[in-house]
Write a structure and sequence with these properties.
InterPro entries: ATP-grasp, ATP-grasp_carboxylate-amine, ATP_grasp_subdomain_1, PreATP-grasp_dom_sf, PurK, PurK_C, PurT/PurK_preATP-grasp, Rudment_hybrid_motif. Catalyzes the ATP-dependent conversion of 5-aminoimidazole ribonucleotide (AIR) and HCO(3)- to N5-carboxyaminoimidazole ribonucleotide (N5-CAIR). Belongs to the PurK/PurT family. By secondary structure, this protein is α+β, with helices and mostly antiparallel strands. The chain is 32% helix and 27% strand. The chain folds into three domains: 4-87, 3-Layer(aba) Sandwich (Rossmann fold), CATH 3.40.50; 116-180, 2-Layer Sandwich (Dna Ligase, domain 1); 184-374, ATP-grasp fold, B domain (D-amino Acid Aminotransferase, Chain A, domain 1, 2-Layer Sandwich). It has helices at residues 12-24, 52-59, 74-82, 91-98, 100-109, 123-132, 161-170, 227-244, 277-281, 286-294, 327-333, 362-374; strands at 4-8, 27-32, 43-46, 64-67, 117-120, 137-140, 151-154, 176-180, 184-194, 200-202, 206-211, 214-220, 248-257, 262-268, 308-315, 338-341, 351-359. A hairpin with a 5-residue loop joins β9 and β10. α2 (52-59) runs parallel beside α3 (74-82) and α4 packs across α5. The radius of gyration is 21 Å and the shape is globular. It binds adenosine-5'-diphosphate.
């Protein structure tokens, strides 16, 4: 069995893989982008994940490669695969997390439900889509967006001209994506894990609340998600995982519509913010599950430990102060709250930690989690 996992990228997702690696007795090594990142504790090197030589040299020190993010270029991933390095998820799957246009095409090809969408290359095409969709739509860049950057609501055919210009200047050309503006009731996320040998397990579907394009709160399981919604979400994620051959954790971000449908918004092929609740709230955390999956070990039980688990992101953190400066007050007032700090400096809008509370009554769990998280504002 491979016993040294190499993680490319030193962010908080890599950081949160460290405790389960220690518990499993598996060695974890991290290639961080700059010194002192969130996963510094397991960093064995600093380097550019876009540089083939750097990544190949790192891969030589580990048995399997996985990721903190989805940005490693395809040519680097393919060179690793050609050199015989196990890469999970592999380039053929990661492609659909790297490029939203390819993702939309694939989801449609798999017969799974998306918002109405089109690839557009100019203002005329955007105008035609707007005309057919009530005058408003969402435009997205295919690559490079995260946390709502690269996503824009437009009501004017010229509303994406700057992005068309940037694409043309980039020399690579290509298209933007336009989607119907979904009037969703709420956003959901469905996580599954898949091993290279094919085993798949699913977590309960969760509700995610976004503020300004950034995940703010997660409620697990999603309240009032009847069995039809839960089953639909699960089926979609399993079909995506099998359809694109994901290995490791997959998160499918979903919209629940007023008429009870579930539409695919986005894919993430790594542990995901919507699954941080699993650290304290599920029998097997998404981070342990990811390690098991990339090592092709039998997957763990996904069952929640309590009826309800609420995870609240700490966005920004206390201005000019560390998270730790609030520990004494927060821990005294909220002994059931579990605080996870990412070792990052406070900065407006930045994800610097999260709080999780689990229990039997949703109202009190939510209130406790929100009040505890508020002490870190
Ligand atoms: P990112 O990759 O930056 O996370 P997403 O594609 O997930 O971008 O979009 C960010 C947020 O924008 C979503 O969580 C959702 O709130 C909103 N959004 C995205 N697409 C649509 C859509 N077609 N209709 C309505 N809202 C959308």
């Amino acid at each position: 069995m491979a016993t040294t996992v190499g993680v490319i990228g030193g962010g908080q997702l890599a950081r949160m893989m460290i405790p389960p690696a220690v518990e499993l007795g598996v060695t974890i090594k991290v290639l961080e982008e700059t010194p002192g990142m969130s996963a510094e504790l397991a960093a064995t090197g600093v380097g550019d994940y876009r540089d083939l030589e750097t990544v190949v040299a790192f891969a030589k020190t580990v048995d399997v490669i996985t990721f903190d993010h989805e940005h490693v270029p395809q040519h680097v991933l393919r060179a690793l695969v050609d050199a015989g390095v196990p890469v999970h998820p592999g380039p053929d799957a990661l492609l659909y997390a790297q490029d939203k246009l390819l993702m939309r095409q694939k989801i449609t090809e798999l017969g799974l439900p998306s918002p109405d969408w089109a690839a557009i290359e100019n203002a005329d095409e955007l105008g035609a889509f707007l005309d057919a969709h009530g005058g408003r739509a969402v435009v997205k860049t295919a690559r490079g967006g995260y946390d709502g950057k690269g996503v824009r609501i437009v009501d004017d055919r010229n509303g994406a001209d700057d992005w068309f210009t940037a694409l043309a200047e980039d020399g690579r050309g290509g298209a933007l994506i336009v989607e119907e503006l979904v009037d969703f009731v709420r956003e959901l996320a469905q996580q599954v894990a898949r091993r290279p040998s094919g085993q798949i397990v699913a977590y309960p579907v969760v509700e995610t609340v976004q503020k300004g394009g950034i995940c703010a709160e997660v409620i697990a399981p999603a309240p009032n998600a009847g069995s039809a919604i839960a089953q639909a979400a699960r089926d979609i994620a399993v079909r995506v995982a099998e359809g694109v051959g994901v290995t490791g954790m997959l998160a499918v971000e979903l919209f629940e519509t007023r008429d009870g449908r579930v539409l695919v918004n986005e894919l993430a092929m790594r542990p995901h913010n919507s699954g941080h609740w699993t650290i304290d709230g599920a029998v097997t955390s998404q981070f342990e599950q990811h390690l098991r999956a990339v090592l092709d070990l039998p997957l763990g039980e996904t069952r929640p430990r309590e009826a309800w688990t609420v995870m609240i992101n700490i966005l920004g953190g206390p201005a000019g102060a560390s998270l730790q400066s609030r520990y004494a007050e927060a821990f005294a007032a909220h002994p059931a709250a579990k605080l996870h700090g990412y070792g990052k400096e406070s900065r407006p809008g930045r994800k610097v930690g999260h709080v999780t509370v689990a229990g039997s009554e949703l109202d009190s769990v939510l209130a406790d989690a929100r009040a505890a998280a508020a002490l870190f504002d």
